[in-house]
Design a protein that fits this description.
Blueprint: E1 13-18, H1 22-34, E2 37-44, H2 47-60, E3 68-71, H3 73-77, E4 84-87, H4 91-103, E5 107-110, H5 118-131, E6 135-137, H6 146-151, E7 164-172, H7 179-182, H8 194-211, E8 218-227, E9 236-246, E10 255-262, E11 268-275, E12 279-282, E13 293-299, E14 302-306, E15 309-313, E16 316-322, H9 332-346, H10 352-372, E17 378-379
Parallel strand pairs: 1-2, 1-4, 2-3, 4-5, 5-6, 7-10
Antiparallel strand pairs: 7-11, 8-9, 8-17, 9-10, 11-12, 12-13, 13-16, 14-15
Helix pairs in contact: 1-9, 4-5, 5-10, 8-10
Length: about 375
């Protein structure tokens, strides 16, 4: 007689959301697709708002076990069935609740920008380290499998771009009507960094990733355009341009990288890496275009002189990676929650992630300082 087999459930990281911002709807699905995560609670100051959020998400992406709607963030942090919290709260409120979550023994995933100052993010990271919990910001593209393929081309080897000499990027979207008068991203009391915090963070993160382990030495920044919602105490950047300066390597001179972010320009999210042997272009480095693959282009054009015939020949290779853009376990947002949950379940926080967040915040705030000084170059500490 065969012995009965007992099914043992795979361990899951138990999540709670503090807040019901729009991006949290995407991450309802991200938790569901992660494979090692489960959403158990959604907290809001208004419990009816939490219930409405759950109902809306359940209609779009049904899950087997509905999370509980909880009144108040304190009640969420007091629960014994919550391992990690995701904070999509406005930037002005993130530091307080990230620190309180860490002090309650919860692992912390926070939307970007992580705080309104370097000091706030340093305090968050210190609290998480003191509590022995994982901290990470919510930049999804850093979990994309496409980055491994890109890294393989940022080299001097065959098919690579050679030594990097320039990186330029842009992340922009044309805000819908009413955005600059009603959206919290146009309010300095809630989102004081405007488009720089909302969009520029991604460009800075990509640039630091591409040139690692080199660290930047200085920045310049300029507010190209600013606006303020009626309730806003001060204007916020709605277009921002910046440069991040890096030391050279070996015989090469320093590297000047640039980025532009805007709420006023049509959707663009490209990054272009120029090297001594070629260049690499990503047309969708933040939010992959819809499909079952993610791609980028490596270019090695050749200028040919043949008598009186002058030819610029296009030699391009499109590299594709099997990775869904959304609604799938392979999508970068699901991978982010999977990666974070795996760290929680391992009991071994990875300190590289808070260091990444701190590095981006330091560069971003130095850009703000430069812009306030009319574009003066601001050095970064070694």
């Amino acid at each position: 007689m065969l012995a009965a087999m007992t099914h043992v459930a795979s361990p899951s990281c138990r999540w709670a959301f503090l807040g019901t911002a729009g991006i949290a709807r995407k991450n309802w699905q991200s938790v569901h697709r992660a494979g090692n995560a489960r959403l158990v609670a959604v907290g809001s100051r208004d419990v009816a708002k939490a219930r409405a959020f759950i109902d809306e998400c359940q209609r779009s992406v049904p899950v087997e076990h509905l999370p509980e709607a909880v009144a108040g963030y304190e009640a969420v942090l007091a629960r014994d069935d919550v391992d990690a919290v995701y904070l999509p709260l406005p930037t002005g409120a993130r530091a307080e609740w990230a620190i309180r979550a860490a002090e309650a023994g919860k692992h912390v995933l926070v939307e970007k920008p992580c705080g309104t100052s370097v000091a706030e993010v340093e305090a968050i990271v210190a609290a998480c380290r003191q509590a022995g919990v994982q901290f990470m910001d919510g930049v999804m593209f850093l979990h994309s499998g496409r980055l491994d393929a890109i890294r393989g081309r940022l080299t001097d080897g065959a098919g690579g771009v050679g030594s990097i000499r320039r990186i330029a990027s842009q992340f922009s979207f044309r805000a819908p009507e009413g955005f600059l008068t009603s959206d919290i991203r146009a309010r300095s009391d809630l989102e004081p960094l405007g488009c720089l915090g909302d969009l520029g963070w991604y460009s800075i993160a990509f640039t630091l990733w591409a040139l690692a382990p080199r660290a930047p030495v200085a920045v310049t920044g300029r507010v190209v355009a600013a606006a303020a919602a009626p309730q806003s105490p001060r204007p916020v950047p709605v277009e921002f341009a910046g440069e991040i300066l890096f030391p050279g390597a070996e015989v090469h001179p320093p590297i000047a990288t640039s980025f532009f972010c805007s709420f006023l320009v049509a959707h663009q999210q490209w990054a272009h890496v120029s090297g001594t042997h070629g260049s690499l272009r990503i047309d969708d480095f933040v939010l992959p275009y819809c499909g079952e693959t993610a791609s980028f282009t490596v270019s090695h054009p050749d200028f040919v002189l043949d008598g009186c015939d002058f030819r610029m020949e296009r030699h391009e290779e499109v590299v594709t990676v099997a990775e869904h853009s959304q609604s799938h376990a392979s999508a970068q947002e699901a991978r982010m929650f999977h990666d974070f949950s795996a760290l929680v379940l391992s009991g071994r926080p990875d300190q590289r992630w808070p260091e990444i967040s701190l590095a981006v915040q330091r560069v971003m705030m130095a850009c703000v300082e430069s812009a306030a000084a009319g574009g003066r170059e601001v050095p970064l500490p070694a």
